[in-house]
């Protein structure tokens, strides 16, 4: 079975070195050697092979032409003879979009595509058993934080068109779907959270947290169940925005080094102190009284000014008839923008597919500019394609534009296999800080120790 290995390596200066850039280096070296040999042999250069770099059925490629122009040619893949595909994706609007893409792909390439309803969060687990058994989809949707474990287990193929994606997609989308320097995913959408506000209660939209705090102080009345600001204060997913904005981090080296945990450094401790300030000044409730459902109800009832939430909440607020808006997270007291976590949903190609070229071509087709704009129109999900950031339909959408702006400051959730060990201890530490007034340094030191122990057990195979 032919598999193109499209490797993304780190060069000596720390930058991404793609297959294309390494090919340029090779061709330059080859050209120099040819000139030297030609000089030594009286100008009789080797015969040109025509520059054919199309892979043959054995998976090898012909030797590149000795002309630099061929380095600019992109390798193109065509579906294998007799190919047919199965695609897994969510139901509802996303499933409708997937069926639309499947029909368009079949029209253009003549490859039948069957769409099956398998949720994107369920697909990685199902792939572990169905992939090796030959029962899994050829292409499937999955959240990016599963990419590392799927790649480490050899369950997914690398992106065949990595050069193209590095230039056309948001950095966060590339980072989130890359593992150990190799790009695996075909990003379909990016989501993060931002600040919802009630337009009937807010007369001046804030740009800083200091303004949020000042306005909330004037409005908050616990006895009347009126609050200026709410977020899930023990949910690490949301609170990471405060931690990252103060200089804390999960793992070192852009969230790839599990030996370096930054959740108890000076910045993370400062974030803990900031959370204590929020409780003291504007949110005098225990963690258990600030659940997702409680704050959603308060916001819909018009007794909550500001609510930290994601794009998934938009429809519910619209259905409630609420007059609301969304803005990027306001700057912190140190002048930094909160670094919210971002999630990148993408398509992945099953490593056990019988049709790797057709499957990879489908994933590329589905994440084209045209198809991702159609996805936005059908689902409202934000496309991570750079060209679409300037699309007028998206720019004129106040809510979509706010989330995309926040996404520029967001940090993709770590996708390495050690990440699951973080959620529990981090959440427990945040609850201890908020409810029990545990000193942030003490609570965070304990969390980091628990995370390290969990990772050690995981890596030892126990």
Automatic annotation (TrEMBL):
Compartment(s): Cell membrane
GO CC field: ATP-binding cassette (ABC) transporter complex, substrate-binding subunit-containing
Chain spans, region Disordered: 49-76
GO molecular function (one): carbohydrate transmembrane transporter activity
Species lineage: Bacteria, Bacillati, Bacillota, Bacilli, Bacillales
Database matches in PANTHER family: MALTOSE-BINDING PERIPLASMIC PROTEIN, MALTOSE_MALTODEXTRIN-BINDING PERIPLASMIC PROTEIN
Superkingdom of the organism of origin: Bacteria
A biological process from GO: maltose transport
Coiled coil: none
Record's bilayer topology term: Lipid-anchor
Name of protein: Maltodextrin-binding protein
Protein family membership: Belongs to the bacterial solute-binding protein 1 family.
Record key words, sorted: Cell membrane, Lipoprotein, Membrane, Signal, Sugar transport, Transport
Pfam families xrefs: SBP_bac_8
Annotated Low complexity bias: 49-70
């Amino acid at each position: 079975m032919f598999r193109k290995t499209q490797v993304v390596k780190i060069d000596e200066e720390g930058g991404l070195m793609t297959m294309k850039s390494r090919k340029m280096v090779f061709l330059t070296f080859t050209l120099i050697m040819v000139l030297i040999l030609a000089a030594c042999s009286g100008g009789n250069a080797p015969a040109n092979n025509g520059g054919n770099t199309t892979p043959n059925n054995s998976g090898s490629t012909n030797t590149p032409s000795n002309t630099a122009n061929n380095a600019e040619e992109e390798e193109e893949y065509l579906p294998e003879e007799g190919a047919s595909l199965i695609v897994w994706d969510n139901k509802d609007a996303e499933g409708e979009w997937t069926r639309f893409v499947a029909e368009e792909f079949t029209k253009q390439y003549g490859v039948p595509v069957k769409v099956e309803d398998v949720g994107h969060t369920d697909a990685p687990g199902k792939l572990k058993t169905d992939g090796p058994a030959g029962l899994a989809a050829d292409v499937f949707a999955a959240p990016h934080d599963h990419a590392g474990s799927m790649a480490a287990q050899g369950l997914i193929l690398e992106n065949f068109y990595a050069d193209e994606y590095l230039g056309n997609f948001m950095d966060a989308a590339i980072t989130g779907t890359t593992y150990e320097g190799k790009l695996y995913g075909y990003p379909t959408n990016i989501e993060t959270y931002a600040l919802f506000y009630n337009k009937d209660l807010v007369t001046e939209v804030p740009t800083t947290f200091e303004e949020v705090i000042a306005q909330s102080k004037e409005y908050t009345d616990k006895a009347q169940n009126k609050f200026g600001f709410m977020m899930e204060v023990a949910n690490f997913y949301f609170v990471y925005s405060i931690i990252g904005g103060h200089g804390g981090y999960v793992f070192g080296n852009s969230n790839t080094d599990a030996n370096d945990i930054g959740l108890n450094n000076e910045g993370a401790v400062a974030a803990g102190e900031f959370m204590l300030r929020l409780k003291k000044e504007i949110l005098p409730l225990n963690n258990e009284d600030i659940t997702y459902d409680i704050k959603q109800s308060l916001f819909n009832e018009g007794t909550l000014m500001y609510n930290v939430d994601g794009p998934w909440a938009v429809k519910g607020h619209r259905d409630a008839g609420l007059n609301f808006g969304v803005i990027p997270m306001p700057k912190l007291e140190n002048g930094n923008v909160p670094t919210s976590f971002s999630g990148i949903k993408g398509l992945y190609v099953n490593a056990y597919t019988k049709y790797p070229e057709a499957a990879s071509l489908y994933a590329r087709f589905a994440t084209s500019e045209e198809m991702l704009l159609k996805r936005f129109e059908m689902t409202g999900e934000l496309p991570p394609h750079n060209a679409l950031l300037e699309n007028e339909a998206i720019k004129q959408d106040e809510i979509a534009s706010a989330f995309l702006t926040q996404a520029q400051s967001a940090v993709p959730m770590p996708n390495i296999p050690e990440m699951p060990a973080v959620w529990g201890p981090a959440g427990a530490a945040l609850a201890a800080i908020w409810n029990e007034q545990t000193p942030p340094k003490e609570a965070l030191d304990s969390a980091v120790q628990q995370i390290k122990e969990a990772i050690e057990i995981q890596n030892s195979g126990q």
